[in-house]
Design brief:
Elements lengths: L1 H18 L26 E5 L10 E5 L12 E6 L2 H14 L11 E5 L7 H8 L15 H19 L2 E11 L1 H12 L6 E5 L5 H4 L1 H11 L5 E8 L17 H15 L4 E8 L8 H12 L4
Helix pairs in contact: 1-4, 2-9, 5-7
Length: 303
């Protein structure tokens, strides 16, 4: 076991050493126009880095967007927002962060980091493996590897970002929706200090017969405090109603969210900052941009 840990540490240190540069990196000037001639559309002001996992051997990438003030304020350190399902969520949160502050600061400037799916895999394959806490059955390797992915975030992805950019080590947010929020819930109850805040949207609490209840109860039995900021959201139409096509048919995710928030508040953790919201006129597929916006406003208000 000790040999394995030493090999893991050596592999991780090698990856970080090869990929990192001093934290004096500067934001690059944004191009004024997109390339033409049928070239792919690029997200202006973004960077892509290969940050593989030395343990699983999977190739992952991080997508990075620096705030407009990064180049002009070289002594400043920034909170970092890490978002799962980056193909979808990274461009949305990048624009939310920009637009919220157009008429004056409403949220803090932040470094945005999108966490990609594994290279060569579609989103379904990556997310159901990396974001779920337990296998569905004995021998199932397509689910239940969230703990391994959590180690990758802690030991590889986060150190890479900290080594390359001017980050505030005390402030980082995790953002996840659906399975991504399920991953965030596992991190919250196994290593809450990995992030200072969590935006958990429409978590898949139904997974494995509501395994989240065991996670929450186990944490409470071992701890007297949960020092974290949490914004928990779900759409109104994620409640269960069979007589209305706008609603879920069987799984009541609104009830699950409310039960989760109630359990946390009942623990009376002195360090917990929790806000829970049911967002009207939204369903599982529409609610995320609004939830991201409200979560950033709650956890990163302008100072």
């Amino acid at each position: 076991m000790q040999t394995s840990l030493r090999l893991y540490a050596l592999a991780t240190a090698t990856i970080i050493g090869l990929l990192s540069v001093p934290a004096t990196a500067r934001a690059q000037p944004a191009p004024t126009a997109q390339p033409a001639g049928g070239q792919p559309y690029a997200i202006v002001g973004s960077e892509v880095w290969d940050v593989p996992d030395p343990v699983s051997g999977r190739g992952y990438q991080v997508f990075v967007a620096l705030p407009a003030s990064y180049a002009s304020d070289p002594q400043r350190r920034y909170p970092v927002v890490f978002v799962t399902d980056a193909d979808y969520a990274f461009p949305i949160i990048k624009q939310i962060g920009r637009r919220l502050n157009l008429d004056g600061p409403r949220i803090e400037d932040f470094i945005l980091v999108g966490l990609s799916y594994a290279k060569g895999e579609d989103g379904k394959t990556s997310r159901q493996r990396d974001y779920t806490p337990t296998p569905k059955r004995a021998g199932d390797t397509s689910h239940g590897q969230a703990a391994a992915y959590q180690l990758y975030l802690r030991d590889v992805a986060k150190p890479f970002i900290a080594g390359r950019y001017r980050t505030d080590p005390a402030r980082s947010l995790f953002v996840g929706h659906s399975y991504g929020a399920l991953l965030g819930t596992q991190i919250l109850f196994s290593e809450p200090g990995l992030f200072s805040g969590y935006i958990l949207g429409s978590p898949s609490f139904w997974f494995d017969r509501r395994h989240f209840r065991d996670l929450e109860a186990g944490y409470a039995a071992r701890n007297k405090n949960l020092a974290a900021g949490i914004y928990l959201y779900v759409g109104q139409f994620e409640a269960a109603r069979k007589d209305d096509p706008r609603y879920n048919r069987t799984t009541d995710m609104v009830a699950d969210n409310r039960a989760f928030a109630k359990s946390l508040l009942a623990r009376k953790y002195p360090g917990l900052n929790l806000k829970s919201a049911v967002l009207n006129d939204e369903d599982h597929l529409s609610v995320a941009p609004r939830g991201f916006t409200e979560g950033l406003k709650h956890l990163l208000p302008a100072r």
